[in-house]
Design brief:
- With 356 residues, the protein is of the alpha/beta class.
- The protein has two domains: 2-146, Glucose Oxidase, domain 1; 153-351, Class I glutamine amidotransferase (GATase) domain (Rossmann fold), CATH 3.40.50.
- It is built from ten helices and 19 strands.
- The strands form three sheets. Strands 10-12-11-13-14-19-18-17-15-16 form a ten-stranded mixed β-sheet, sandwiched between helices. A seven-stranded mixed barrel has the order 1-2-8-6-4-3-9. A two-stranded parallel ribbon has the order 5-7.
- Helix 6 (180-187) links the parallel strand 11 and strand 12.
Length: 356
């Protein structure tokens, strides 16, 4: 069946339908990772977006147990070529069946290189995936311009508190759309991880006397999370060590007077170099974000930049002055990798008093 990707600038790509045949409007973003397509599909940070994979062949090892959450989250999936005969000793099914199961539409057979160049040159834009060959462009374009992602954190966060047992430090993980490997990375270091829904009040978290607080990644515009920001202000005032990743990093910055803005096309991929400003060392990181903290305008008595992106100089981390708090924009828990910055979890353990 034919499918069409229609961008808000009027560009139309024709390909073949994969997955569900339902029609969707979403924000179109691209990911440059060469592997780990399943981790991308199951990353809650993609809620409210349709993902273009720039690597030309997707699905060659099928669906394996390497999922970062219990289900896929993108609104749509866009690939150059979809493997119809996956081969892997752990394979449990195909991407096609996976998309069908979760009612996610997609399109294959389009020039993803050309599409990515458009998104890089003009910036991230909204688009529609449809199988309607009689689409009316004049009716569709206004709808595309009106689409907003909105507050998608409520959609992806867990519904109730849960505990990952451990004999070490007690960590409270605020689930803003957390990838599973954040909790696993802490748990394999001995931590007992209690996972809280995004709307949990600061008083409830602090009442259980955690040794540290982890703020997770998540989707959408950080400024849509006003209630969460107010609770983070209370967590900041406590003396509890805090480590934050991605959306958590942005929200902690907003809670302390910083600003954020939308990037032209964001950082999404597994090869982004970040520089530790304290040591001068550069690490290769996995990233997935469309917003960035304006760290230059933060009060220097409150916080200072800790990491920057080597490619474009944008902020990648913040250390808070006089507080046991540090935050990063990239993903030290990245699956399938790179794992260059996984040492940050050890730094967090040390902030909580070490393993003893």
């Amino acid at each position: 069946m034919k499918a069409f990707l229609i961008l808000e600038d009027g560009t139309v790509f024709e390909g073949m339908s994969i997955g569900s045949t339902k029609e969707i409007i979403s924000e179109i973003v691209f990911n440059t990772s060469m592997t780990g397509y399943l981790e991308v599909l199951t990353d809650p940070s993609y809620a409210g977006q349709a993902v273009v994979m720039t690597y030309p062949l997707i699905g060659n090892y099928g669906i394996t147990p390497d999922m970062e959450s219990k289900r896929p989250w993108p609104d749509g999936y866009i690939v150059r070529e979809l493997s119809r005969m996956p081969s892997n000793f752990r394979c449990e099914g195909s991407i096609q069946d996976f998309l069908l199961k979760y009612d996610i539409p997609g399109i294959s057979g389009i020039d993803t290189r050309a599409l990515t160049k458009i998104l890089r040159e003009k910036g991230t834009m909204n688009g529609m995936i449809t199988t309607d060959e009689n689409y009316n462009l004049e009716e569709i374009l206004p709808k595309l311009k009106e689409y907003v992602t909105g507050n998608v954190v409520d959609k992806v966060t867990c519904k109730e508190k849960s505990v990952l047992p451990g004999k070490g430090k007690k960590v409270a993980l605020l689930d803003l759309g957390a990838k599973d490997n954040i909790a696993k990375s802490l748990n394999k270091r001995g931590c007992e991880v209690t996972i809280y829904p995004a709307g949990t009040l600061a008083e409830e978290i602090l009442s259980e006397n955690p040794d540290g607080i982890m703020l997770s990644n998540g989707p959408g515009d950080p400024k849509e999370c006003g209630r969460i920001i107010e609770e983070l202000k209370k967590l900041y005032q406590s003396d509890t060590p805090i480590f934050a990743i991605c959306l958590g990093h942005q929200l902690m910055a907003l809670a302390n007077g910083a600003d954020t803005h939308k990037m032209k096309y964001g950082h999404r991929g597994g090869n982004h170099p970040v520089k530790d400003l304290e040591t001068g060392r550069v690490y290769i990181s996995s990233q997935n974000h469309g917003y960035v903290v304006d760290a230059e305008h933060m009060d220097k008595s409150v916080a200072k930049p800790a990491f920057i992106n080597v490619n474009d100089g944008t902020n990648e981390g913040i250390a808070y002055v006089g507080k046991n708090i540090f935050t990063v924009q990239f993903h030290p828990e990245a699956c399938p990798g790179p794992q260059d910055s996984a040492y940050l979890f050890d730094r967090f353990i040390d902030m909580m008093g070490g393993t003893k």
